[in-house]
Amino acid sequence: MISVKLKLKGMQQFMRGTVDFKEGIVGINGDQITVDKLPFDIPLSGTVYGTILNYKGAYETLKTSMHKEPYKEPPKAPILYIKPANTLISSDAVIPLPEDISELEMGAALGVVIGTQATKIAEDEAFDYVFGYTVVNDVSIPHESVYRPAVKEKARDGFCPAGPWIIEREAVKNPDELNIYVYINGQLKQENNTSNLIRPIGKLLADVTAFMTLYEGDTLLVGIPENAPLASVNDHVQIEIEGVGKLQNTIKSEKNLLGGL
Amino acid sequence: MKHARVVYNGSIHHAIEKKGNMQLNDGQIVKENEVIWLPPVGPRTVFTLGLNYVDHAKELDFNVPKEPLVFLKGPNTFTGHLSKTYRPSDVSFMHYECELAVVIGDTARNVRKEEAYDYVAGYTVANDYVMRDYLENYYRPNLRAKNRDACTPLGPWLVDAQDISDPMNLTLRTYVNGAVTQEGTTADMILGVPELIEYLTSFMTLSAGDIILTGTPKGSVDTKVGDEVVTEIEGIGRLVNTIIGEDTLTKTK
């Protein structure tokens, strides 16, 4: 039995459920409901932190520049950023495309949801602090330089779809070996695997909590694979992480957004 | 009016300043040294400006950036008045940054600078410590240098916006062990409070309780274990913090 924590629209509290991936059915309080009938809300409650340059391929892309200006040397510690509260939306919600922008990067990320306040934790105990996993789309306005924090590119309203649920830790046998697929309008545009992480999840949690506390409910995105696919207005985007879930959203022009909801 | 969030007798209270003492929300009058001070606003989304004073940018050998240098901070980094902040033992340069903190009062999107003050609830003082040894040139200033636990004291008071006639003309001072080490004025900000609100709301929504730390002027000096660091802004408050050694925080199994 695969156990999930989820939030449904119109209800303040979180729900517990079970998922049958093969049949596409969620069980909640004895009811069996098909996934596409459930009005999912954002399943996350804490701060969402992202990690850059943690996929080998993403690191390789920048590697030749790392000894040049402005970077000067390769990164030592994990490089993080924050997806603030205004960016969070649920699965099935609309990603707003800013008026002066034509394409957005779809950053397919495994989100590790923290279960117990974690400070200076050891790598071999890291999973004791994990509640579960979710699927996150770290949406960005395309930008090449990672020298300065990308708040304008990454922190826009609706730029962090997450969900549809949090799957419990025990249900994912090896989070360091999960296939990730990104489909745009039904076409497979990207495929990667968390086995390509430079810092696997335990090591990443240890290295991050060496300098900052992660609280219960916080989510750490383990990285964005290289060559993040681009999507544009009216595109339907689905990110699937094997054994974790499928997150789907549609992009609409920011200008028409409220009318289009 | 000046507001604080404090712990007294095991409960969290909203308090207001009352003739040098404080009045808790249940009416009790207590002394300022009888409470534990929390940040006056529970941090939600917090922005910080880098290089927003010309003299500080020059001090660090940076040109004034074309695009405002904005970064975000997590809730782990905030602590209150009279708190202690630890200095890692391998750090050679840890400096304070005295900053005017602007607390947003209402949902704000596409706000013009002429109307920006309508969206300000009030002001407080921030001390935005940085461990310069940990700076790396990726999303600089990176979180390891700027978002450490209890590394951003905030407070003591949230001062209502209407009580500050001109937030763009306030003296900032930092004292280390009583000696002035940093002095500047908010008049020297490159982007002032209205421009920052206009800039941020031009691409995202700000909500009540969001905070903008507006950057620091020149005068960054290394601080050592045992130093008392006071960041003070005219009319807003005097925020006291003490540096402690990392050995006091070692975890044992």
Automatic annotation (TrEMBL), chain A:
Keywords: Isomerase, Metal-binding. Residues 47-251 form the Fumarylacetoacetase-like C-terminal domain. It comes from the Bacteria. InterPro entries: Fumarylacetoacetase-like_C, Fumarylacetoacetase_C_sf, HPA_isomer/decarb_N. GO terms for molecular function: 5-carboxymethyl-2-hydroxymuconate delta-isomerase activity; 5-oxopent-3-ene-1,2,5-tricarboxylate decarboxylase activity; metal ion binding. NCBIfam families: HpaG-N-term. This is 4-hydroxyphenylacetate isomerase. It comes from Virgibacillus profundi.
UniProtKB/TrEMBL annotation, chain B:
GO terms for molecular function: 5-carboxymethyl-2-hydroxymuconate delta-isomerase activity; 5-oxopent-3-ene-1,2,5-tricarboxylate decarboxylase activity; metal ion binding. NCBIfam families: HpaG-C-term. This is 2-hydroxyhepta-2,4-diene-1,7-dioate isomerase. It holds the Pfam family FAA_hydrolase. Keywords: Isomerase, Metal-binding. It comes from the Bacteria. GO terms for biological process: 4-hydroxyphenylacetate catabolic process. Residues 45-243 form the Fumarylacetoacetase-like C-terminal domain.
